[in-house]
Amino acid sequence: MKQVHTHPWDVSVKEAYQIQRDLRTRVFLRNGFRQVSIVAAADVAFDERKKKAYAAAVVVSLQDFRVLEVKEAVTEVDFPYVPGLLSFREGRPLLKALEQLSREPDVILFDGQGIAHPRGLGLATHMGILLEKPTIGCAKSRLAGEHKIPSPEKGGVEPLMFAGKKVGFVLRTKTKTDPIYVSPGHLVDVDTALEIVKYCSREHRLPEPVRIAEQKSKEFKAKANRR
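^ that's the sequence the OP posted. Answer follows.
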């Protein structure tokens, strides 16, 4: 997988905000695929003591959720944690891992926001624009928007509204478990993003590809620390 667009990463917080405002004009919320059979996901595990970020990218078959490919990457952590600027902290290691994939996924899932973001440019949206790939955000917490509480059963769902627009959904992926916040990143429409995440949600809170990527990033970090 190749990165199509780029921008400076060694920037200040103020410059990062401006990059987000510039990139959001490129967001396109129409499906960039005819069908979805292969899904990728990527996640980062941080070692704050060593100032390292350990990223894992996985490709999963949607037919049986079999892992087809795993790639890893490690980078220095050189951007502070700032709410709303997660992609400037995680973007470089994620891209480094994703660029190693030989299989081209139909869509990529991220543990982060899509357009449900104060400036409309969460992690999934940012990565989708740079890669020119369909992406979806599956966040554990809300960053922007208002919603009703979904029913406690698995499959309970409510629209997530922000500035008068539907920017995603609040989805209960497991009965009596906290919901996740689903929003399209790039090249996916709002309703299709929900359907894909619902299909990928099995026995855990996180969609299966994201759960696997999170597990692989933690294993990569642990393996590196044993050396």
